[in-house]
Design goal:
With 279 residues, this protein is an alpha/beta fold. The chain has nine helices and twelve strands. The strands form three sheets. Strands 1-2-3-4-7-8-9-12 form an eight-stranded parallel beta barrel, surrounded by four helices. Strands 5-6 form a two-stranded antiparallel ribbon. A two-stranded antiparallel sheet has the order 10-11. β7, α5 and β8 form a beta-alpha-beta unit. α7 runs parallel beside α8. It binds fe (ii) ion (FE2). The site of fe (ii) ion has 5 residues, from loops.
Length: 279
């Protein structure tokens, strides 16, 4: 693996990055691998000063995106302003180039469920979520990216396909989309829709980042574990996504069975080669 030669914290996020995980802190700080950028899980740094110290060191050499799970943008609970205050403080320290979270809900009656749950795809929910995203963007002083979910059930009351639901929200909230290619494939398989048709319908001008990850095949459904290498059908869908949306920043996500850094680096290189091929 090449070592990074020049450090420049102001470089824009572009190319292939890797999700920053604590088991790789020492390796990164010692070896300074030649990776374009890192995405840190914001929730891990809101209260943990020792992790924050590592992030601040790594941030000196690499552009950083902050990706969270705690916004609960789809919940009917009031927005948790204590959470957003901490996130804003973190952003002030780290100066991330991207702040993102998920199009989902994780709390009800202030009980947090530790799952990114899907939303009914209705006009009322579009209005509700868009309003909350706009409040969050006003508070943080920046546009955020929202990530399409991986889902395992659907609501009978849904009125539209997921791509139409997402397009309506990102347009109304004036935010951007973090398109998780693996999530598209997982949901398409579980709900029997065409993932390529999905890509063709997404509003291309608002897609600003990709996620790539591995799923587990549970035989009668796919489970978005982030615990395996990226599967060939997801790479194939990624090639189509590059054609639709261009060579936008791509993040290799791994949250379970985390391998040595070099294994993720290889997947990042594979993504980079496909980006370079598209130009
Ligand atoms: Fe993702």
């Amino acid at each position: 693996m090449q070592q990074r030669l020049n450090t420049n914290e102001q470089r824009p996020i572009q190319g292939a990055g890797i999700g920053l995980r604590s088991c790789h802190y020492d390796y990164i700080l010692e070896n300074k691998p030649n990776i374009a950028w890192f995405e840190a899980l914001s929730d891990n740094y809101l209260n943990d000063h020792s992790s924050l110290s590592f992030l601040e060191h790594i941030r000196k050499d690499y552009p950083i995106a902050l990706h969270g799970v705690g916004m609960s943008l789809g919940s009917t609970d009031p927005l948790n302003w204590d959470y957003f205050k901490k996130l804003k403080q973190l952003a002030k320290r780290i100066q991330p180039q991207i702040i993102s979270d998920h199009l989902s809900w994780i709390s009800v009656n202030k009980q947090y469920l530790h799952d990114l749950l899907p939303l009914p795809m209705t006009q009322a929910v579009i209005d509700h979520v868009s309003s909350r995203i706009m409040q969050v963007q006003d508070f943080l002083g920046t546009r955020i990216l929202i990530e399409n979910p991986s889902t395992y059930f659907e609501y009978e009351c849904s009125e539209m396909p997921e791509w139409a639901f997402i397009n309506a929200i990102i347009e109304k909230a004036d935010c951007y989309l973090l398109l998780d290619v693996n999530n598209v494939y997982v949901s398409a398989t579980n709900h029997e829709f065409d993932p390529y048709d999905y890509l063709n319908h997404i509003d291309s001008k608002r897609v600003k980042q990709f996620h790539m990850a591995g799923y587990a095949d549970k035989k009668n459904y796919l489970f978005d574990t982030h615990g395996e290498t990226i599967h060939p059908p997801v790479w194939a869908l990624y090639k189509a996504a590059l054609k639709c949306f261009g060579a936008i920043p791509t993040l290799i996500e791994r949250d379970d069975n985390i391998p040595p850094f070099e294994a993720l680096y290889k997947e990042a290189q594979q993504a980079q080669q496909l980006m370079d091929a598209i130009g």
